[in-house]
Write a structure and sequence with these properties.
Pfam families: Lip_A_acyltrans
Subcellular location: Cell inner membrane
Number of helices: 10
Number of domains: 2
Order of helices and strands: HHHHEHEHEHEHEEEHEEH
Structural class: alpha/beta
Number of strands: 9
Oligomer: single chain
Strand content: 15-25%
Shape: globular
Keywords: Acyltransferase, Cell inner membrane, Cell membrane, Membrane, Transferase
GO biological process, one term: glycolipid biosynthetic process
Main location: membrane
């Protein structure tokens, strides 16, 4: 009897995932007929209203209180609301990426996108057959970064965590392959795939601010966390440059993409990249970004064990 109920539960979950994926697909398809500014603004306002009603809002508030014990409740809630607005914009921007990304390195014209680090993009582009690693965090619209790299003829193979809903995951993977180059889902074999790209002189990108239960212990906002050491291990194996990059939301629906100079990697007594120290340095860099623009980071994930 238990086996029968288990099978029914699996079927119901699969049906719900299928239904929800089609609802999301229908919403995104309908949004294509809206002007970009109106569509993005609508979902930003909707997220402002709906986000605080979800269970994720409590997680966000708990995380913010833990990260900022010096802030009062009004400041904490204001950051959480700003985060939901950012999430609403991010959802809508999937549809309008081709409309909002108006940066062209060959044209000196101010648009929605501004880029800091053009000379670095050009330098990396000219280093043919040399591997590079880029990393970022879930800040602003981080999806714009690989599109920006493509404007400089840089192909970046990115590691990403697919959504839990398998039907949505397939749609996202298909869309990102079209717009953002190659992707490697974070599952068994992902490390080998990225290593293969680097070994061939390619470029890889990673989001480094996700919880990883089997990761290296470190600190983030003065609280213990576990972080995936994959980037540090790859940097050690291939002894290649590592570049931080981030997206910042600006007023009036604009964006600034920043590519920073090559990161100085901590090394051990033998001159090899120090895995633990490098992983902690990634946490420190991301923390500095989040502290600068706290409302642009995803606070609703369980980054800490609390």
């Amino acid at each position: 009897m238990k086996l029968i109920f288990f099978r029914i539960a699996i079927k119901l979950k699969d049906w719900w995932d299928w239904l929800w994926a089609h609802v999301v697909a229908a919403i995104l398809a309908g949004m294509k007929y809206l002007p970009a500014k109106a569509g993005i603004g609508f979902f930003a306002g909707l997220a402002r209203l709906v986000g605080p009603l979800t269970p994720r809002h409590k997680i966000a508030l708990d995380n913010l209180r833990a990260a900022y014990p010096e802030k009062d409740e009004a400041e904490i809630r204001a950051i959480a609301i700003e985060m939901w607005v950012n999430m609403g914009r991010l959802f809508a921007e999937y549809v309008f990426l081709d409309k909002i990304f108006d940066f062209d390195p060959k044209v000196e014209k101010a648009g929605l996108i501004e880029v800091d680090g053009i000379e670095l993009f050009e330098k990396i582009r000219d280093e043919k057959d040399k591997p590079h690693i880029f990393f970022t965090a879930h800040t602003g619209n981080f999806e714009l970064l690989p599109i920006c790299a493509a404007t400089f003829d840089l192909e970046v193979t990115a590691l990403f965590r697919p959504p839990n809903n398998p039907y949505i995951a397939r749609r996202v993977l298909k869309a990102r392959r079209t717009n953002m180059g190659h992707l490697v889902p974070s599952k068994a074999g992902a490390a080998w795939a990225l290593a293969g790209k680097l070994n061939a002189g390619g470029n890889v990108g990673m989001l480094v601010d996700q919880k990883f239960r089997r990761g290296i212990e470190g600190a983030f906002f003065n609280r213990p966390v576990k972080t995936n050491p994959l980037l540090a291990k790859l940097a050690r194996q291939f002894d290649c440059p590592v570049y931080p990059a981030r997206c910042i939301r600006l007023p009036s629906g604009r964006y600034r993409l920043e590519l920073y100079p090559e990161m100085e990697l901590p090394r051990d007594a033998n001159g090899a990249v120090d895995i633990e120290a490098t992983t902690q340095k990634l946490n420190d860099i991301v923390e500095s970004w989040v502290r600068e623009y706290p409302g642009q980071w995803m606070w609703f994930h369980k980054r800490w064990d609390m």
